Amino acid sequence: MMDKEITDDLIIKILEAGSWAPSGLNNQPWRFIIVKNPKIKKDLADCTKYGKIIKNAPVLIAVFFDQNKGYNRTKDMQAIGACIQNMLISIHAFNLGAVWLGEILNQREQVEKILAVPNSFELQAVLAIGHPTEAEKKNTSSRISLEKITWREKYGNSL
Ligand SMILES: Cc1cc2nc3c(=O)[nH]c(=O)nc-3n(C[C@H](O)[C@H](O)[C@H](O)COP(=O)(O)O)c2cc1C
Is the pLDDT of residue 1 over 80? Predict the structure, then answer.
């Protein structure tokens, strides 16, 4: 069966979910570029060792921090993390999948050039969005147990 097209309507809903993230002073420092064009995707794919993921994804969302809108680096980064996570949850709710690509930041300047963003835009991540295969849906992941990372009242008192 053909995968359902990821329509602009759907992409807008995903971006809306991102833009409803909280931010310090409600400064909303995130900016987005939607990429579907195969030539631009190919150029971006050449910027990361995860290029295959980029090429296989029908839609990319590049997420930027607009330094002109920032007021506190830590809080601005936290807000953008929340924005990205909101989008991941929304993508999952639409039965799609996404990979948060951070390795591509090693070629941040190249990506910024390809996407022709203003100087104040600093790349934060690229989300590669697509239809997860049955195998990918079954992919398992793991986390450190809470006992190892949580204490009661003061550090040292175990959970
Ligand atoms: C800041 C950040 C950068 C990441 N960069 C990459 C990346 O470049 N390539 C990739 O395949 N996954 C990347 N990931 C996904 C993580 O590898 C993944 O979340 C982690 O291994 C846990 O797997 P899970 O989220 O499927 O449980 C990144 C995640 C975050 C939060």
Answer: no
User: What is the model's pTM?
Assistant: 0.96
Pocket of ligand 1 from Cβ distances under 6 Å? 50, 99-103, 141
Alpha carbon of 153 to ligand 1 centroid (Å): 31
48 CA → ligand 1 middle, Å: 14
- Report, as an integer, the average pLDDT of 119-139: 94
CATH architecture of 8-148: 3-Layer(aba) Sandwich (3.40)
Distance 154 CA to ligand 1 centre (A): 31
Domain ranges (residues) in the chain: 8-148
Give me the DSSP letters along 35-72. E--HHHHHHHHTTSTTHHHHHH-SEEEEEEEEGGG-S-
75-100 average pLDDT score:
98
* Cα–Cα separations (whole angstroms), residue 9 to 5, 16, 21, 97: 11, 11, 19, 17
Using pLDDT thresholds of 50, 70 and 90, give the confidence band for residue 138: confident
Taking CA atoms only, the protein residue closest to ligand 1 atom 20 is 141
